[in-house]
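Q: Here's a chain of 200 amino acids. Please give me its 3D structure as tokens.
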Amino acid sequence: MPGADAPDRTAERAADRALAQAVLANAPGAFERLVKQYQGLCFHIIQRMVRQPDDTRELCQDTFLRVHRYLHQYRGESSLQAWIGQVAYSVAKRHLERKRIPVQEAADPEEHQALLDNVGDGFDLERANVDEESSRLLHAAIETLPPMQRTLLTLYHLDELPIGEIAAMTGLAEGTIKSHLFRSRQRLRQVLEAKMGVVA
């Protein structure tokens, strides 16, 4: 399978560049197509970061204004999805910083290294999400996480984006992302075990 990914990725990059060029050339309907294709991702990232419906809508609009303004800087080195995700993430992050809302918890460097050494914690998030009640509790537990952890967990487990792509969106090192994911899963496991006896 890994061999099959490379042609797929090349085709995706070519399609991304073609869409970007069409938007830059003001081709009819091109920007609308781009917005339709990526508005779900944009909404997901911003909503997970800020959690305020009015702010989310406004920040999504701001994101696509910025995408339109700076699309000439897109070189096709990453996917268009990762590039737009990066714009959405930075817009949401700046919004939280302006409101003085912490984006993440302070990390202890020794704990950080310990987490990196034990990324495979054995907690199966998908298994904890098997029925409606479990799913409701899981999503409620995710909402208790700090904005960055909430967003990373959603992108990795629910949107199923690879860590490399999340790193491109957020500007975080892959090891930092793994550390956040590990800590998030640990917290979710504690919350779910307390509420319904979920065993990892």
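Q: Can you summarize the key feature?
A: Confidence is low (pLDDT under 50) at residues 106-124.
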